[in-house]
Amino acid sequence: MVETEALLSPADIRELAHALDLRPTKRRGQNFLVDPNTVRRLVRLAAVGPDDVALEVGPGLGSLTLGLVTEAAAVAAVEVDPVLAAALPVTAAARLPAAVAARLHVVEADGLRVEPADLPPAVAAPTVLAANLPYNVAVPLLLGLLERFPSIERGLVMVQAEVADRLTSPPGGRIYGVPSVKLAWYAQARPAGAVPRPVFWPQPNVDSGLVAFTRRAAPPADAGLRREVFAAVDAAFAQRRKTLRTALAPWAGSPARAERLARAAGVDPGARGETLDVEAFARLAQQARILPADQPA
Hints:
The protein is of the alpha/beta class. It is built from 13 helices and 9 strands. Helix 6 runs parallel beside helix 8. The chain is elongated and about 65 Å long.
């Protein structure tokens, strides 16, 4: 159970920020959690247990980190800011018993590029992702981590509320789109609640939401087909008001071939991309490998 006294209060956060001469920047999406109750809620929803290795990207001053370290077997905290990366182990050592603080492994790296080889061996195969993701890069960050860290079985991420809605939208919805389909390639996702603005410092000017996910037992097609599937998804939603016959033409090579691919995949070429689930996009990509390209006239 997360010990209250170990967590950072709003006063603690401001004191740390002052000591580090820290001014949160919008460029890095720095909005720090300052509410211990929210931290306990996030750790509980992430279901982090003593057998888990947790991966946190963008730990900042350590609000969520301290909660994760008290519950997990080990935590990899990936921080791109060198000042924050250097301060985080000091904060943990000051607030946690030595044996607990030793579970924390801080890595100064960019979450958009970090790979298992960049992490210490003890945390190179994380089982759970738990993070308040920088809102300006949340989607590519999440998708990239799921691709590069196949050991991640489940996770809970905090993102902008609008992004949370898109990530968890089912096919057919107005906000269903590229993030929805691409996350579905890796995992089954669901909304896990809202987070009020006052629990952050500084307060963001957008609402926040939680996305929980569980990795699929296997992707909907051979993993080597992922790039082709994602290319089809990008094409379909680049012109989301157009039918697949038209929207997929740049990807397929022509409207005629797009129609042939759709029919071979069991998809209506007159439908729009927003009606297709990830399995349908996978079938389209599979057919693109099978059916010959158009021949020059």
